[in-house]
Records
---
Amino acid sequence: MTRQPVAAAVLGVGQTRHRSKRTDVSIAGLCREAVDRALADAGLTMSDIDAVVVGKAPDLFEGVMMPELYLADALGAVGKPLLRVHTAGSVGGATGIVTANLVQAGVHRRVLAVAFEKQSESNAMWALSIAHPFSTAVVAGAGGYFAPHIRAYIRRSGAPSHIGAMVAVKDRRNGARNPFAHLQQADITLEKVLASPLLWDPVRYDETCPSSDGACAVIIGDSDAAQASQAGGRPVAWIRATAMRTEPTMFAGKDPVNPAAGLAAAADLWRKAGITSPIDEVDVAEIYVPFSWYEPMWLENLGFAAPGEGWRLTEAGETEIGGRIPVNPSGGVLSSNPIGASGLLRFAEAALQVMGKAGAHQVPGARTALGHAYGGGSQYFSMWVVSSTP
Amino acid sequence: MEIAFDYTRSLGPVLGQFMTGLRDQRILGARAADGRVHAPPFEYDPVTASPPGELFEVGPAGTVVSWTWLPEPLDGQPLNRPFGWALIRLDGADTAMLHAVDPGPAGPAGLRTGMRVWPRWAPDRVGSIRDITCFAPDAPAPAAVDPAAVDPAVVDTAPDAVADGTAPVTMTITPVRLRYLHTASPAESAYLRGLAEGRLLGQRCPACGQVYIPSRGTCPADGVPTDTEVELPDTGTITTFSVVNVGYPGQQVTPPYVAAAVLLDGADIAFQHLILGCDPADVHMGMRVRAAWRPRAEWARHADTISHFTPSGEPDAPYESYARHL
């Protein structure tokens, strides 16, 4: 027997101004900045929060075991349920979904999701390149892992070689409209991106996400809480559907270019949201694109385009603000990458769009938005659809 | 195996003041909204979640609230001779802090709950909890701690201005080291023993029939044991690759180098390996390669027994032959 879930909505969103180094604050202080902004955005205080869900990337990234325990005071979680979610790079998205689920299940009325990363305290490439005793240590960080799959996508799709650079230009210019974005590169050009050094051939420097310190907080409430917010003149983002899927890092037959877990999650998401043609029914998408070529790859995996055709949307400018499916108007992961928070930022930016609060990077008239995250070796997928109406 | 990294912690305003105080031989505490004094100070009040007001000095003497004896200290601990770990409530504080207590020649008999202890300051202080070497039962005398008793590996470093006492402490370095023993599974063990004999041993999944190398002992798709051994040749095809031009701490190969997915003939999954023996610009998808084994005398139960892969000179494999592995 399936019970109808309680309606849930995003009541407030907060984030830090993402930077390469926030040496003025501790991890706790960084998180608190995002939490205070989310509470202010929702017109709430910590006493209105029933439970807290924390997401962050692997502990090795900051060398703090179980940081959620030491963060309890900073997050106002003392005396409340406190959970930590961990799904590698997709953790921010998974944190949003677990938070939504606690409300949808009728367990809590208002729940705070917090996700963070302080990359300046460590070195993510080192943490991602720990050698196994039975394999050769040649994979250099996330770029080293994903670059061969990007090459495979280019070969399979026949995409022209400048598509990745086009994505980078669009996302960096979008980021310049977003005061919270780490990289502010309004003047970036295709020529500059194409001239930047190849870090992991075929991936260029300017097609790669930055290392950022940053945090994001999202408050999710049930329909009574959402209606109370709306009655106070505060828009909310109704959560129409969530989906998560997982597959092993490696198995014979895995398709790292168009992973089965991503296809399954997207199919489940669109079915739950009642969406039959995503490109026609979704107004804006915040998609986890840490390396520029992942825009066309995920457009295909998510069903916005047929396999091998995603790059055509990018090339035609359809993923720009004003196009058929604007992707990452916030600047996306290519403009800010506090890894643990990056997924929740995608979910939060989708909410801001349908709340009409995205400021200079607002997609005009956005009513339905996708937030998406992936992690590990393209093995964890989490996504949600939010709308301006229930 | 060993993994290690020196994490650089941004302390933030509260812990920064606390660490600056330690460098200056002062221990600071904070008063919570409920009136209790916390030492070390909290960043956020556990009751109200607010940051503290102005910090103030507590101690330096305190009372042992509880303790345990450590007969065999580990690397990285405050003292390299037996000592006690104690919860110490400093004078003027309501909470206890954890630190080492050195009772001297009395050993564990010299430790008891309720005893009075005083900090022993390190001679070179940088703004770290290690600026207090330990606590001890006697009122302080100069140079009471023998510097040779302190493990030099755990003494933090700091910029000169901080060590000089002229700048506030804002950062601390936290070295984290993890040494561990990897117990090879039977399947990993078979693979590594094979390498030592110059053989490449994989396993076939009884459910899907796919050949894994190296095998972890179970099929990740079917979840069943892969117990049929399959010997594979040392030739294969580059399915895809990247040219790594970027460095990072602890990197084992100096960039630029080609990291390729090599699909051995007869295998159903590619593994990543180093490609040498040609210009990186000449490496391409479908290129045929052969394992470059280390000299016979160096064969060992170790992945490095194959140094790299190198072009075999055979004609390229057709795209269709490896397309399903992309």
Note: Chain A touches chain B through 66 residues (CB under 8 Å).
---
Amino acid sequence: MSAIWSIVRRELAGYFATPVAYVFIVVFLLLTGIFTFYLGNFFQRGQADLLAFFNFHPWLYLFLVPAIAMRLWSEEHKAGTTELLLTLPLPAYAAVIGKFLAGWIFIGIALLLTLPIWLTVNWLGSPDNGVIVAGYLGSFLMAGGFLAIGACFSGMTSNQVIAFVLSVVTCFLFIVAGVPIVLDLFTGWAPEALVSTVASLSFVSHFQGIVKGVIDLRDLVYFASMIVLWLIANGIVVELRKG
Amino acid sequence: MNRKAYALSGLALLVVLLFAINILADGLFRGARIDLTERGLYTLSDGTRKVVAGLDEPIRLRLFYSEKLATTVPDIRVYGQRVRDLLEEIASVSDGKVQLEVIDPEPFSTAEDLAVASGVRGVPVSESGDQLYFGLVGRNSTDDEVVIPFFRSDREPFLEYELTRAIYRLGHPARQIVGILTALPMEYGPGGIQGAMQGRSQPYALLDEMRDFYDVRFLDPTALARVPDDVTLLLVAHPKKFSPTTLYAIDQFVLGGGRAMIFVDPFSETELGGGGGMMPSPDRGSDLGPFTEPWGISMVTDRFVADIGSATRVGYNNSVVDYVAWLGLGEQRLNQDIPLTAGLGTINMASPGALERRDDAPMEWTPLITSSPQATLMETERIAGRPEPDKLLIGYKPEGGARVLAALLRGEVPSAFPDGPPAPEPAAEDAGPKADEAPAEATPMPAPLARSNGPVNVLVVADSDMLADRFWVRRQNFMGEQLAIPTAANASFVINALEHLSGSDELIGLRSRGFSSRPFEVVEDIRREAEGRYREEENRLQLRLQETENRIAELESKVGGTGDILPKGQAEAIESFRQELLETRRALRQVQRDLRGDIDALETRIQVLNIGLMPLLVALIAIFIGLFRISRRHAGKGIRHASQ
């Protein structure tokens, strides 16, 4: 446990040592604001809730989370410090979990900094704060899913760009799996069970369930399984690279 | 190589696991969830679950919802999602008994034809006249149909109730029979039976309304031994001089789980005064009689609720005065938390009584209609003769706060006849022509019930005049046909009440959920405030307009009808008035612009703060930390230099 935490601390300190972290947070906050007010029609909707805010999170994360994730391992691979890290008296899984947690906490911090929008809706009207809490929780879980995917691809290659592109494509597939246009491609020939299974693997459908204010155990299982399994995959590919 | 093969098979295993876990969870954890919404919007109440679980046959629900068109109407979109979620939730707990089909009836599609044919109503939303549909058609296996033509978002608090009621009705399609026991001339009108025999029969218009939904059967209040088995609802109006056996029959009916609606009255203005010139009886009240004690509910006798806050205006001695004995009870006086009375409109009552509940009463009560807090109690003697509305106002003093005029009662109660049935009356054999049903002696009397089996549901109203036509309906001749035009919601109240009582116990227990729409109150306030200003401005304009017109008319009348050209001075005056008019209109437009302007300014401020503030802060912190580090590095170098 302490091994994991020492890695988390080292990683987090690494984030804030360069301006990259701040740039990331600023970009994230600007984009959420712009999406909420312009694309989400926050005022035109006239409703004291944060749907306009949360609805764009999957698409925001699609690019921002892989951007964070790409350097998790690729950087170490390139600098050749992966072996060093893995020869430390730490179990291999500690490095995997520690790096992931550091990234997740970092996203959590960025998410926390969006609190002004919460204050705003509370000032403008009387929103259902239970729903908003659920929304934040769902958003955070979804970010974890994206991050685990990104971490795995980052572990595969020493090229950050390749890691980024691969994770964006994969995340995109996991987003659109629930979109009717994609499902229509399957409905013609695939069995009903396969279609519904594909749909059920979509980030968006699980996220939207939570954003409504209902925390379904199935949604939790989905996000947990996504995170855990992609991290195991991450461990396997890192092990493999060690050769 | 071996390691690689291991790793690859490991990865493949993970993919399989991902599918397996989620498919398994989907089957295992259905319904395991926490509803974080404030009012439990996604948690079905037990009542709904029980109604759905009690279904014997499958029910098909078709939701016609123009989802694509609704994206342009935010109000409907929000509510549409809510309706859809709730229906899906109901379907998911029904074990397949409720089948939901969501149809988007796009313009000029066969789905649209189907919607129209099923009785779902379209609302034009776009300039091209595209119709938006948002209704529900439910059908059971015997093709009984229940239609909700359009989901109105102002009924949202009762959405679950209305959906559950629709499902309940489909599950129990048989028409119910309402038995009526009354001392009022409901069946033949004010002329009584004599009038009816002379061809002047004028039954209460309420009966027509009731017959749209129920079978109505009059029972004989003077000689009823027991309520027939097929009667499931009992309407008791003005139970005056009912025989003990009749009261016993009511008692046993209620204890056995029958639903009753009872109208009592401290002073009936509509009971038969004997018709043919007989003096009205001095005692014109009725009360809960033997039920007062066991139920713990009573009505104050010989005194009626006078209410200056709800008084209707009546013409009297060539002027219009408040008549405190006749009440028009609007939205604020009706319980808005339960579907029965919410959004009903105004209910008229005439000299109603005050209901009271004993503290230890076994009946819980939900007041449905209350007087205003300015009410007081008055002796019925004061209105017994020719009513003099102005006299009632002399020395009027509010006392005792708001009075309950109608209430839903629910609880487990003992019999009002603990010693068993009263002795039968000898008069039973000359049961009049009112007795429609077969004599009760034919079937053996069931064993008397001493207590209710489970909670009973009764609705008590402390006024019976509200049923009479003259308090809620205007009759009009239209092309030789009599049309009844309601002027108050009295009949809707009775129908709603019967509907409410006829549902299952679970359905009666369903309560309002509140609205899920949450507007920006601050913005609304600004708008209201600005609109107030706008209206003031508008009124001023109207006044000026009026004045100007008057002056112009005045000037013109001076000139007379000669058609001459106006004298120069007057023409100038008119011109200046016109100028004034234009000026005011301009000011008005400015106010309108300002109204939007205040809101726009607020929105811009919020937008800038939300988008810009945090990023700016973060950037500042980053710069600050950066500078701090640089300075520290310099300082470190300095130290190193010094040590060398």
Note: The first strand of chain A starts at residue 214 and ends at 216.
---
Amino acid sequence: MHKTRLIARLDVKNEFVIKGIHLEGLRKVGDPIELAKKYYLDGIDEIVFMDAVASLYDRNNLFHIIEKACKEVFIPITIGGGIRSVNDIDKALRSGADKIALNTQAIKNPEIIKEASRIYGSQCIIGSIEAKRTGAGWQAYVDNGREHTGVDAIDWAKKLEDLGAGEILITSVDKEGTKKGFDAELVKKIAESVSIPVIASGGAGSLNDIRELILNCNPGGIAIASLIHYNLFSVSEIKRELINNNLSVRP
Amino acid sequence: MSKKKIAVIDYGIGNVQSILNALENLNAETLLTNNPEEILNADGVILPGVGAFKTGMENLISHNLISVIHEYINTGKPFLGICLGMQLLLDESEEFGNTKGLGLIKGKVKKLIIDETTGERLPHVSWNEIKEPVKDRWQNSILENIPQFSDVYFVHSFAASPNNEEDILATCNYGNKDFCAAVKKDNVFGAQFHPEKSGKIGLTILKKFIDLIK
């Protein structure tokens, strides 16, 4: 049985970890390297750094943060936001990242997933989807949940797998930052439509939200942010609670 | 005591920075190199790598590294292959048709087989527990004194299948099937998991590797 990975999601803007609601109304919560270290020492399984503004202003300042974090944090690290080319991917990997999450650029040019997974291996490429509920289904958004694309999120997940992505990171823009629970239906639909591991992001506000999602969808990973950024719980407290509930996570 | 010098083989594949960072954190002197002399002079050598077996082997050949690796191993100094670097130790891999490997461990690299009814997925991207196949197998190895069922980080779809049971250093279970998680043959070690990404326990394993240096 796989152990559900608990993943700290650090959205970074101008050298600070920030947190908003629905990916907007951003508030500073701390230093990315200090937070990464703290969560690592407390037992987080993975860390995702997301550049919250890079794809909007066409710049990228996360590489040097990753470089420093990787000197002290010895768990898998993903970088996302503002990655536009194979050259960017190469730089990100050289700075110490293990995986690259692609959203905006993948929508603009799906071939980048194919090319990058061929060069670096599928294990390195995460197809990142920011989905909003629209009528009966969900649509993929880009530029941090601001721009709609007209692409159906479920179809897009399948396409990302076909193109060579090794994992899907599904963020519910509707739930993101609300602490009102995951969009379990979305996670389930995505997980059913692909055969690669799925990471659920957006909405974790209580231990029960995490517990329920594991029981209902059993995703490969669960991304959390507000829960730990606002010290509602520590990573070790969350792990302990899940283990006490007989759920399969790394102690 | 002078620092142990570990050469990490640079053959244009995979994320090597985290291995260098981990070794430096353990106070080893590191060099990323494909220079034969530097490799032969190192106290320990690590063959990293992620991605496809065929590309890995092609890159070793194009960098003229095959004979250097064999020559280094004949010196008896410790050698560690990580992930694809472990798979390359075997005779061949069935990934994208059959490709010949380094032939240091007898056997083949095969696609992971999982029991589909478990609902598990491939690639195997997960922390998972390693197990000693036979009592005392971990003595004098990179896993000496590591607690049974320690969690380490895996990301792979293929795994080594050594012909000789005694070459299997550790096993792991995924999708209700056991696979080979680590190998050992004399001074040659291989880890399918990523010790450099496996937190404290991973660093302990790398420390063991450094401590094997005489």
Note: The first strand of chain A starts at residue 5 and ends at 13.
